[in-house]
Amino acid sequence: MTTTGNSYASFLLGALNSSNVTEDSVVGTGARYGNYSYWIQDNFKVSSRLMLNLGLRHDIFLPFKEVLDRESFFNPNLPNSAAGGAPGILMFMGNGPNSCKCRTNINTNYKNFGPRIGVAYTLNDKTVIRAGYTIMYTHRGAVGGRGGGRIGTGTLGYSASPSFVSPEGYSPAFYWDNGVPSYAKPPFFEPTLGTTFNGTTSPAATMQYGDPIIGGRPPRYQNWNLGVQRALTSTLSLSVNYVGSNGHFLGGGGRGFWSDQVHPRYLVLGNLLTMPANSANLATARNILPSLPGLPYPNYSGTGATIGQMLRSFPQYTNVSDLWGDVANSNYNSLQLTANKRLSHGLVFNLYYTYAKAMDDTAGTRTAYNWKTEKAPSTDAANVLNILWVYGLPFGKGHSLGSGNVVVEKLTSNWQLSGITTYRSGQFLGTVGAACTLPPNAGSCYADYNPNFSGPIRINGTYGSGDLLATNAPAFLDRGAWMSPTAYSYGNTPRTGANGLRGPSNSNQSVALKRDFGIREGWKISVQADAFNVFNWVRFGNPNFNITSANFGKITGTANSPRVVQFNARLTF
User: Fold this and answer.
1) Residue 125, pLDDT score
2) How far does Cα 363 stand from its chain's mean position?
3) Quick check: 537 and 547 in contact, CB under 8 A?
4) Which of 8, 225, 257, 371 is the most exposed, fewest CB within 10 Å of its CB?
5) Could you tell me if 254 and 368 are in contact, meaning their C-beta atoms sit under 8 angstroms apart?
6) Which residues contact 434 (CB under 8 A, 6 or more apart)?
7) CA distances from 407 to 403, 404, 413, 415, 431 (A)
8) How far from 200 is each of 75, 164, 186, 196, 239, CA to CA, in Å?
9) 494 φ, ψ to 5°?
10) Quick check: 41 and 54 in contact, CB under 8 A?
11) What value does the CA radius of gyration of the chain take, rounded to a whole number of Å?
12) Where are the domains of the chain?
């Protein structure tokens, strides 16, 4: 018999089939940061035409500390006695057992100097040339902000998660009336905690590696600009600017060895990477790759002790996370046009146009051993136009229209019409998804270009043409332009912008009509009507970009909201 007994009777008797317990000796941690910044800055009038603005800022961002040192971290350098001396153990902050005798393992970076340089030159009474350059730093990683900095490297060792299960499936794990069986109470100041693949049944754990150098280095941005501003009339000016920026040590990126991924050179072994690391399989693997190393430590064994697992940087753990390995980069260049019209004839408007190109390697899923392949265009729009305008309608008192009649004046005076017009060109489409054949812990893949494809990729007219809700809704991309990569490879399409493809553009017009009615001194009522997306334009979402999907190339939704009209009134006194 595979089953026996009555589950309801077991419930009445308080006989548990299984139970999990979580006990934390540290429920919450107290993050502490110390930031110190100083700067010097002054303006220098070199001549009647030339003005300089010079400054220097110095930021000192101290890394995360826990108020009572209740934090653990992964030390990749010391030998692990539970894994035959292989490097990598768990250590603890503070001065207790197996501690580093320190409050943080992260070095403070004292080189965060940020110059500020500004130049303004008056060419004539209508034209000014301006330029600027600066270096700025922000918080991330071990110095706060985003990226895990607020919780440090974690509290592994400060909690227990024992499990109690029936030995053969029908005998109780324990009776509720007898309470939970005894188990070891946290904290566990044990350097080999989380070690597995060593013939024991010790619970596995993910190690959080906080790099002492990279962790304390904040993201750095360089920004520069050069522009000309010209007064075209007494109320209208035009500015033309080149604006650029680059960023370093940004969130994301991959760092090879510290990624704990299988190195791409071992992919030649194919499905052998998923097989147990026994003598027979290792011999077969060495026939393919004679340089294959031996077992990482003498007692390497157990479920999951595969050839692929043994080739990882720290094979004694199920996973090691490079918590603050922020080595990503970005680059941005743009032409920016601005037209400003001050109030005249009841009209004020500002026009902003940007033509830009941005590149980055802040994301990606392929191997961290070749991160340069993740450098690709950012998914920002190349063309952006924004127009903001306010117009006082020419009716009523003080205007030629309707000013001769008291009733008409009362109804038509002081109405104000305003609007925001926006246009954004389509964004680069993201990763071309495909079917991957890769071993665990070796990254992921993108699609390959199909070398035999010669037809147009964009098909079936403009985005949104046809019946998008039909069973046979049109696809706007030809699936045949790409194919899944060969087994144990990563694909050759870029992370974004394959074939220069962009998604649908976006346009929007919102308007507002407003008037203030004076009641008495200090009292007024404001009435306003707003219409968002007044023309009810549709902005389609990007098409599906996974060649294994039945919906590939199809648009299945919109990316904006329909027209919304609202009315409101406000009494001010």
Assistant:
1) 92
2) 7
3) no
4) 8
5) yes
6) 445, 446, 447, 448, 482, 483, 484, 485, 491, 546, 547, 548
7) 9, 9, 10, 15, 63
8) 22, 18, 20, 7, 70
9) -75, 170
10) yes
11) 33
12) 7-250, 262-311, 396-572
- The string of pLDDT tens digits covering residues 94-139 is 999 999 999 999 999 999 999 999 999 999 999 999 999 999 999 9
Mean pLDDT (whole number) for 311-319: 95
Question: What is the tens place of the pLDDT at every residue in 420-475?
Answer: 999 999 999 989 999 999 999 999 999 999 999 998 999 999 999 988 988 899 99
φ/ψ (deg, to 5) at 43: -105, 140
Phi and psi, residue 274, nearest 5°: -95, 0
Pick from 193, 174, 171: nearest CA to 182: 174
Give residue for tokens 């009522």.
525
Which residue type does 37 have?
S
- Which DSSP string corresponds to 474-527? PPSB-GGGEEPPPTT---SS-SS-GGG-B---EEEEEEEEEEEEEEETTEEEEE
**Residue that has been written with the tokens 């390995």 in this structure:** 325
Helix or strand or coil: residue 451?
A: coil
Beta-ladder partners of 90: 74
Given the structure tokens 């501003």, which residue do they identify? Answer: 229
Token pair of 357, please? Answer: 């190109």
Name which of 78, 68, 77, 82 is nearest 32 in CA terms.
Answer: 68
Helix (H) or strand (E) holding 404: none
C-alpha closest to that of 482 among 501, 502, 466, 468: 501
Cα–Cα–Cα angle for 316, 317, 318, rounded to 5 degrees: 135
Residues facing 60 on adjacent strands: 36
| DSSP annotation of 447 | P
Instruction: Please give the Cα distance from 224 to 333 (Å, whole number).
Output: 10
Residue 528 confidence (pLDDT) above 70 = yes
Run of H or E including 428: none
Token pair listed for 129: 């040339």
Q: 3-class secondary structure for 133-159? A: EEEEECCEHHHCCECCHHHCCCCCCCE
Beta bridge partners, 244, equal 224, 333
429 to each of 12, 239, 525, 571, how far by Cα in Å?
Answer: 58, 32, 48, 48
Q: Which residues have C-beta within 8 Å of that of residue 419, sequence separation ≥ 6?
A: 387, 388, 389, 509, 510, 511, 512
DSSP letter for each residue of 37-80? EEEEEEEEE-SSSEEEEEEEEEEEEPPPEETT---EEEEEEEEE
